[in-house]
Amino acid sequence: MATRLVHEMVYDAPAEKVAAMLADPAFRESVCETQGATEHAVQVTPAGEGMSVTIDQWLPTEGVPSFAKKIVGDSTNVVQREEWSGPLHGDIEVTIPGKPGTMVGTATLRESDGVTTETVELEIKVKIPVIAGKLEELVAKLLGSALRAEERAGKKYLD
């Protein structure tokens, strides 16, 4: 089984401007800070008409239920890789090094009347028998919170 997360972020800006924001390392760093990362490294590299993005960050796990805290500890390393084939579509893979799980999916930009919606769709799989479903739901909740923080940072960036 896997848990699916679909999250939309809406920006009052054309897709071209949102794509440029996503390609700006300073924006990606501000997202890490907004998400509460204690350490982070961001790399954005042009690749054809798209780009490759790697975000390696350490996030605190305060507020995480005890059953999960035993697995992740007081903080956890999260590595996000994105491969954008062009400005409107990217493939995403999020891993927690040394932990049995993956998050794989896409990010797409869609513009309508100068307003751009970024849709992130992820499939979350945790490979720990018995508690996999609980952990997947928790990860989905945490990712939703992280994406809301990204949207706040994006709206601030675009102002």
Q: Can you walk through the features of this model?
A:
With 159 residues, the protein is α+β, with helices and mostly antiparallel strands. The protein has one domain: 2-Layer Sandwich (Alpha-D-Glucose-1,6-Bisphosphate, Chain A, domain 4), CATH 3.30.530. Helix content is 33%, strand content 45%. The protein is built from four helices and seven strands. It has a seven-stranded antiparallel β-sheet, with helices on one face. The protein starts with a strand and ends with a helix.
**Average pLDDT rating:** 93
Distance N to C terminus:
41 Å
Category by helix and strand content: alpha+beta
Q: How is the main sheet built? A: 7 strands, antiparallel
Assign an overall shape.
Answer: globular
Uncertain segments are none
Highest CATH level, the class:
Alpha Beta
- Number of extended strands: 7
Number of helices: 4
Give a quick rundown of the structure.
By secondary structure, the protein is of the alpha+beta class. It is built from four helices and seven strands, in the order E-H-H-E-E-H-E-E-E-E-H.
Task: Output the keywords.
45% strand; alpha+beta; 159 residues; Alpha-D-Glucose-1,6-Bisphosphate, Chain A, domain 4
Secondary structure layout plus pairing:
Elements: E1 3-11, H1 15-22, H2 25-34, E2 39-47, E3 50-60, H3 66-72, E4 75-86, E5 89-95, E6 101-112, E7 115-126, H4 132-158
Antiparallel strand pairs: 1-7, 2-3, 3-4, 4-5, 5-6, 6-7
Helix pairs in contact: 2-4
